[in-house]
Design a protein that fits this description.
single chain, alpha+beta, 2 domains, four-stranded mixed sheet, 12 helices
Length: 419
């Protein structure tokens, strides 16, 4: 009998391992997951609330979304464990970024850069994440930093669903699948719904001092947490006008409303790129090279929102195989996600690329401490405490050349071509 029980335990464990590693969306499946995955009826985390398995809500999330022992990008993980950071860079390469960058502070002589500047400072006590000590509220808004967690942006119970026809609702047809992915079965039917993109908060979802007005549209390939040394991951961000949808920038503005309010000194969002910018994006290859083809010009470091709310169209654009690399049309839009990652990045303000100094590369290599060509009185401001390997990790493992020019300037030029 003991042998039988042991065999059953091993079999169940193996099935769980196969299921979780093979399907990153299996646990949530677009909606509320198994209650016991996040809550414990009799042995919840001491000091916590809601019978959670973590001291706080984000700690409960990271119980699954962080995994000690990762040697590289791994499944649905969005945080590198402290034990795996060491002196190196975070390991995960999800489109939203790796919260581990929040733990990477850099110094170089008189230059100092706090890791907290690299992204959203979630409160996850069990995993070493704490509230932003500089910004007590969201920049450009009123949301309290001390309350920021995964649940601030994602509905942990996944009630929001997309119905056939595109409308977003909290009730109605049952959720059958994620809805986030480009795989078959991720579209609603007349009697079944799918979850909204990444369980994002929808209309009426209130946390702290803010209430969301809808969800944005997007599709992602099933394999999305991967090095981009060879293949890029394209998240197909969309623009939907169906009931319950908002644009990406409107969604971000729930907390950061004053970041793009009015005036001449704010970057435009949620408007068409226009033929000039779209044309430059298609031609731009790297500094000094404007020989690109629009058909192969997409760069995941500078994505854009496709002017479509048709999820079948978006699913066709989502890719991790370099098969969907077309540049934007004039009606496609710039959005917050064009410049920022959602979680954290290797750059300040969770940017997708560095804008802190004029050069990304010097003499054909990233501007690290170990690049002997980075010299001069302001070398420390250019290197900013990082090794070449840190810069390369932040650019999702892209080789400095031929990806970039030998003296590559800031990637704002992908759209503006002033270099």
């Amino acid at each position: 009998m003991k042998g039988l029980k042991l065999g059953l335990v091993i079999t169940v464990a193996a099935l769980l391992t196969i299921g979780l590693s093979g399907m990153a969306n299996a646990f949530h499946s677009g909606g509320v997951a198994e209650c016991e995955g996040c809550h414990s009826m009799h042995t919840p985390k001491t000091g916590g609330s809601f019978l959670l398995v973590g001291t706080d809500q984000s700690s409960a999330c990271l119980t699954c979304h962080e995994h000690a022992g990762d040697t590289g990008p791994s499944s649905y993980h969005v945080s590198t464990a402290a034990a795996d950071l060491g002196t190196g860079a975070p390991k995960q390469r999800t489109p939203g970024g790796d919260f581990g960058w929040l733990k990477k502070s850099y110094t170089d002589g008189s230059y100092s850069e706090d890791g907290a500047t690299h992204g959203h400072n979630i409160v996850a006590a069990d995993f070493g994440y704490s509230a932003d000590s500089t910004n007590t509220t969201a920049p450009g808004g009123t949301f309290p930093s001390a309350q920021l967690g995964c649940q601030s942006c994602h509905d942990p119970h996944g009630q929001y669903r997309r119905l056939q026809g595109g409308a977003i609702a909290k009730t109605g047809a049952p959720i059958k699948a994620s809805g986030s992915y480009n795989a078959a079965g991720n579209e609603p039917t007349a009697t079944e719904a799918v979850g909204v993109y990444r369980l994002l908060a929808g209309s009426g979802y209130t946390k702290g001092s803010v209430t969301f007005n809808g969800v944005p549209a997007a599709k992602v390939p099933s394999g999305y947490n991967m090095s981009e040394a060879t293949n890029q991951v394209r998240v197909a961000y969309g623009v939907s006008t169906s009931s319950g949808h908002v644009t990406w920038s409107t969604w971000c503005a729930t907390c950061h409303g004053a970041m793009h309010s009015t005036g001449n000194y704010v970057h435009p969002v949620d408007q068409g790129l226009g033929s000039t910018i779209a044309g430059l994006y298609g031609q731009y290859v790297k500094s000094g090279d404007m020989t690109g083809s629009a058909a192969s010009s997409f760069l995941s470091l500078v994505p854009f929102a496709t002017n479509s709310g048709d999820y079948t169209t978006l699913a066709g654009l989502a890719s991790n195989t370099n098969t969907q690399l077309g540049g934007p049309d004039s009606t496609d839009q710039v959005t917050c996600m064009s410049c920022h990652r959602a979680h954290a990045s290797g750059f300040m303000e969770m940017l997708r690329f560095d804008n802190g100094y004029e050069f990304t590369t010097v003499n054909g290599q990233y501007v690290g401490i170990d690049n002997p060509s980075v010299t001069g009185s302001r070398a420390n401001v250019q290197r900013r405490g990082r090794m070449i390997a840190d810069w390369q990790a932040a650019y999702y493992d892209r080789a400095a050349t031929p990806t970039f020019a030998t003296y590559q300037r800031v990637l704002c030029n992908k759209c503006h071509a002033k270099d």
